[in-house]
Fold this sequence. Notes:
The chain is mostly helical. Helices cover about 70% and strands about 0% of the residues. The protein folds into two domains: about 5-75, no CATH class; about 90-160, Arc Repressor Mutant, subunit A (Orthogonal Bundle), CATH 1.10.10. The chain has seven helices and no strands. The longest helix has 23 residues, at about 50-70. It is elongated.
Amino acid sequence: xxxxxxxxxxxxxxxxxxxxxxxxxxxxxxxxxxxxxxxxxxxxxxxxxxxxxxxxxxxxxxxxxxxxxxxxxxxxxxxxxxxxxxxxxxxxxxxxxxxxxxxxxxxxxxxxxxxxxxxxxxxxxxxxxxxxxxxxxxxxxxxxxxxxxxxxxxxxxxxxxxxxxxxx
Length: 168
């Protein structure tokens, strides 16, 4: 029934792709999708030629989109200085700087008195509310507030040292 549309569809696809083999692949996929759609439909298609052409057109658009996405230079053939750089956060200097910043903050937090450090860590990293920390540590709510403020001040001073700002 739909075999009579084959030549017309092949011409249409060949004109678009300018490649006979690629056009044959598209036509074959078009017929496969057409037949698969027939199994799910109850009634007969009134204009099978139009449906075949629509399926082929969509396949050609998809094929073109894939080709555009894949169109890029072979990175192995580029000179070293023409190759794209890794993202900034993966650059060795950035990674070293980030590790140094983390170490500075860890050292600052570790330098806090033990009870202060415990309250600060529970609040900042475990996201515990002040009242729960007070109950957990067996201290007053205001003492927890003082511990957390002391930890925040220490971290703020660390941040200032790292950014080279003098003060407070």
